[in-house]
Specification:
- Residues 1-15 have a biased composition (Basic and acidic residues).
- This is Nucleotidyltransferase-like protein.
- Residues 1-20 are annotated as: Disordered.
- By secondary structure, the chain is of the alpha+beta class.
- The protein has two domains: 16-125 and 181-304, no CATH class; 126-180 and 319-389, no CATH class.
- It has helices spanning 3-9, 24-30, 39-49, 51-63, 69-93, 102-106, 127-141, 201-211, 220-229, 238-247, 251-265, 283-308, 369-381, 384-387; strands spanning 98-99, 119-123, 145-150, 158-164, 175-180, 320-324, 342-346, 349-353, 358-362.
- The chain has a nine-stranded mixed β-sheet, with helices on both faces.
- Strand 8 (349-353) and strand 9 (358-362) form a beta hairpin.
- Helix 8 (201-211) packs across helix 11 (251-265) and helix 11 (251-265) packs antiparallel against helix 12.
Length: 389
């Protein structure tokens, strides 16, 4: 039987074996710590990687009965933030938003090991939906900050982040919801933007994790995401996953992620505390297929760069951020005309007028006061019929 036939045979076949919930022993292995490392050392090492990884290790430790008053309170605050994200996601789903990675993966985690989430990312199909979602969240939840990024030159793809202070301002990351019109933004070069996620939940979730490789190395939290996604009893369409990775230009990244996962779960000694079980049926044919697709994709990226003489897409370095000119207490504006959405150049810069707020587009963190004053003057001169206010 060929690798392709073997992969086809695994379609929708739940794999045998049992993958236990990740424990401290697994995290010691993933963090390259001694098997006798204390829970404090494991949590500290995970925190050097990311706060979300640290929270996952703390949750696993608490599940094993290793918890103190401070860590219990931190985990309680994190659970409250995740519950808030769930309410936001449910509200936004009715407006046409779809979660990117976070809550989709969280649904596959067991109740006693909730997936930590620093923020919530939502994907919408167009800018009109984006502003409906943003307007609803501002009206209902009163964020303290609103940030905007223009992902392309024509402002067809936007990202808006709403944020609230953490429950403990000294210890907690801010609560943050980001709404994007583009699901996967690529590497600003050979890997293009892909606005729409695959319909298949498994492919959508794992490709979103794989996409993270353009921003940072994979870590143990990503491994646990894969473990939960490929857990026994879940219907797996591994050939579809391979095709999606190829079509979305993510075969190299997904292959790297799955190889890291395989190395973590293939521990000698069946039945030992550190043996999380077997790999899914058809997993090795999947890796073989991804290996072939990775060779093609890496060659395509090299050809792309060779043709352009650069590793960056034209205009990719000119990512623009929106300096909000509208006070948050004036947002949203339910009677704002739809025509308000659009770019309005003025001498020295550009305004982005939207149904929710108006922004000065800038490329740096520091804005010249003269440019800000010019933007305010330009905004005042925009036709009231266009402003709708």
């Amino acid at each position: 039987m060929s690798a392709h036939d073997d992969a086809q045979a695994s379609r929708h076949e739940p794999h045998p074996g049992t993958l236990p919930v990740p424990d401290l022993a697994l995290f010691r292995r993933l963090l390259d710590l001694h098997e006798d490392a204390t829970p404090y050392e494991v949590v500290t090492a995970a925190g050097r990687v990311s706060q979300a990884y640290r929270a996952l290790v703390m949750t696993a430790a608490a599940r094993e009965g290793v918890v103190g008053s401070g860590s219990a309170d931190e985990l309680r605050r994190r659970a409250e933030r995740t519950a808030f994200y769930a309410r936001v996601q449910e509200r936004c789903a009715a407006l046409g938003a779809r979660p990117l990675k976070g809550l989709s993966l969280a649904a596959w985690y067991p109740d006693d090991l909730p997936r930590p989430m620093n923020d919530l990312d939502l994907v919408v199909p167009d800018t009109a939906t984006l502003w409906r979602v943003v307007g609803a969240l501002v009206a209902e939840y009163a964020p303290q900050e609103m940030d905007l990024a223009v992902l392309d030159g024509e402002a067809r793809h936007l990202a808006v982040a709403l944020s609230w202070p953490g429950a403990d301002p000294l210890l907690d990351y801010e609560t943050r919801v980001e709404i994007l019109t583009c699901a996967l933004t690529g590497d600003e070069g050979a890997v293009p933007r892909r606005p729409v996620l695959p319909e298949d939940p498994l492919a959508a979730a794992l490709l979103a994790v794989a996409e993270e490789r353009f921003q940072r190395p994979f870590n143990g939290k990503d491994v646990v995401d894969v473990m939960m996604a490929l857990a026994p009893g879940r219907p797996l369409d591994l050939p579809l996953l391979a095709r999606a990775a190829d079509a979305y230009h993510l075969a190299p990244e997904l292959a790297e992620l799955l190889e890291l996962y395989a190395g973590a779960v293939q521990v000698p000694g069946p039945g030992s505390a550190r043996d999380p079980g077997r790999l899914p049926s058809g997993f090795h044919p999947l890796l073989a297929t991804l290996g072939e697709a990775s060779v093609r994709e890496l060659r395509r990226r090299e050809d792309w760069r060779g043709e352009r003489g650069t590793a960056t897409a034209p205009g990719a370095g000119a990512l623009r951020h929106g300096m909000r000119l509208t006070p948050l207490e004036s947002v949203p504006r339910p009677h704002r005309r739809a025509e308000a959405a659009g770019l309005h150049p003025f001498d020295g810069g550009s305004l982005l007028l939207t149904p929710v707020a108006d922004f000065l587009l800038v490329t740096g963190a520091v804005v010249d006061p003269a440019l800000y004053d010019a933007a305010r003057s330009a905004l005042a001169e925009v036709s009231p019929a266009v402003r709708g206010s």
